[in-house]
Amino acid sequence: MLKYKGYHGKIEFDEEAGLFHGEVMDLRDVITFQGKSVEELEQALHDSVEDYLAFCKQRNEEPDKPFSGRLMLRLPSEVHRKVYIQAKKEGKSLNEFISEKLALAV
What we know:
Layout: E1 2-4, E2 7-14, E3 19-24, E4 32-35, H1 38-58, H2 77-89, H3 94-105
Helix pairs in contact: 2-3
């Protein structure tokens, strides 16, 4: 995985074409790049992200950012109640409790 300006690129090898291609993850917009070496891939990622940022600026649009840290979560009401009660027993906010549990899961 390559990183540039907070954007993360997932890379795969296309055996038929004999080159690597990548796509920036965690965005609604699509940013792709390709290259035959690590150096080419890194440069292609940089160029693609810069092109994307320039395109957004030209259109007066905010570029899509990697994950903000906010997560909309829907739970069955009984699970919500149990999680809330457990968080309170541990002296934590619901957000803090869920964040800690998710961090342990990954």
